[in-house]
């Protein structure tokens, strides 16, 4: 305990947490609305999840169980560092198991295991403004949100179809929240968009560099934008996970060698491990130890 | 045709501090009528246009517009949401520089379709068919539909801007020097096109120009402005052939003869 005595609980001072909680409450009251907040300097560079960390720091309590994922994985640098950070400054229990976590901070994935009521999903958001690349002026985009002028968002989807024959946006796919605000779901694959719709978990979004917080309360309508003759579709994969044989999950491509060898494995490592523990085996799963933590395929 | 005007402007003034933008301008505009506002640069014609199109709030005076339901609405008392809705449905605004009125980084088709999507059109096939139709009406080749306006010539950009504005079937179009910066042969084609569209669609238009030839070709009525005030107004032919105000006489006699 001696090394945490030099920090306030969860790193941020109480006034800052109070300010961020007010922003979160406002965000929850107006689903999808981007609430400005006084983002603090964090001991990590912008782009590494400063927004998500501030949100997590403001809502975490000593009894919480924290899970951190980065592109679905619990074992990458960003996830490991943020987990270690909160273990140090808040002394909370951490886990990699989706079901037993009370707070899940995520960079660009929603876990495959369905979330339940009482859980909080905290997203790290690089660019909160869905209209940003179409309209560079912040004054104008705020006005467009205020007046619900979202024709421009469909211009982007129109361009996609005109150029590629289909809606080619695969991540950060714009959604309309509770029939009102158009929101950027952060760069999650559009595969995860349907999981946001009426999710029993509270979803909070923090953008540190852009100084915005927004939220989707539990059981809120989250509808992906589309055209009548080009409806929204999620990605499909033509083969199951190479390690756990899971279907209808989001897969990552892993390059095996420099001769074109590759495999497709679950992006959600916790989901993949749980399945292998339960005895599911993909065609590249290691022979000896099915619960092995390594991602090396058997050769 | 109805016997009520489309737009009623009364004593409209705009001051920039102690400087006059436009002073005490009043007129009525009828449906299907093209009104030209001419004058030298700095005479307040663009200020007047910006006030009328609610891009600028006047210092005093009123302007009422007859909405599609026949009711007159005071423009400067409408909420911003209503004004912007009017702007992208019942009105059009053609800028002198097409880059101000177009989205330069999205395709021509999307530029034309944007207004449709803004009013809730959500069928890609229909939007595209409308875009194709409008491009052909402004004489842009169909195979340019997926090109960005950056790849277009000045004249094509201006025609694209016109198509983008007319796609929702507006009743009133504001034009700020629509032929400025184009060479004469392109100008002639554009004027031809505009004249055709205005008569076919029965558009009312307010055209700001310093080019009296443009005014003569497009408009039925004109107002001559100087130092923010209207010095003469009347039928275009009358004003140009028989100018009464000394300033108008000077302006008409300043046209270069070739």
List the chains of the largest interface with their residue counts.
Answer: A-B, 20 and 24 residues
Rg calculated over all Cα atoms of chain B: 18 Å
Beta-strand portion of chain B reads: 15-25%
- Percent in helix of chain A: 25-40%
The helix/strand class of chain B is alpha/beta
Count of distinct strands of chain B:
10
Written as H for each helix and E for each strand, in order along the chain, the element string of chain B is EEEHEEHEHHHHEHEHEEHH
What general outline of chain B do the C-alpha atoms trace? globular
State the total count of DSSP E strands of chain A.
Answer: 12
Rg of chain A, nearest Å: 20 Å
Query: Biggest sheet of chain B, in brief?
Result: 6 strands, mixed
- Provide the spatial order of strands within the biggest beta sheet of chain B: 6-7-8-3-9-10
Tally of DSSP helical segments of chain A: 7
- Multimerization status: heterodimer
- Strands across the major sheet of chain A, in which order? 1-9-8-5-4-2-3
The overall average pLDDT of chain A, rounded, is 92
User: How would you spell out the order of helices and strands of chain A?
Assistant: HEHEHEEEHHEEHEEEEEH
CA-to-CA gap between the ends of chain A? 46 Å
Largest sheet of chain A: 7 strands, mixed
Roughly how many Å apart are the termini of chain B?
A: 40 Å
Keywords:
heterodimer, A: 299 residues, alpha/beta, seven-stranded mixed sheet, 7 helices, 25% helix, B: 258 residues, six-stranded mixed sheet, four-stranded antiparallel sheet, globular
Explain what you see.
The complex is a heterodimer of chains A (299) and B (258). With 299 residues, chain A is α/β, with parallel strands linked by helices. In chain A, 25% of the residues lie in helices and 17% in strands. Chain A is built from seven helices and twelve strands. A seven-stranded mixed beta sheet of chain A has the order 1-9-8-5-4-2-3. Chain A has a three-stranded antiparallel beta sheet with strand order 7-6-10. In chain A, helix 1 (14-29) crosses helix 2. With 258 residues, chain B is an alpha/beta fold. Chain B contains ten helices and ten strands. In chain B, strands 6-7-8-3-9-10 form a six-stranded mixed beta sheet, sandwiched between helices. In chain B, strands 2-1-4-5 form a four-stranded antiparallel beta sheet, covered by helices on one side. In chain B, strand 1 and strand 2 (19-29) form a beta hairpin. In chain B, helix 5 packs across helix 6. The longest helix of chain B is centred in the last third of the chain and has 18 residues, at 184-201. The termini of chain B are far apart. The interface between A and B is medium-sized, with 20 and 24 residues.
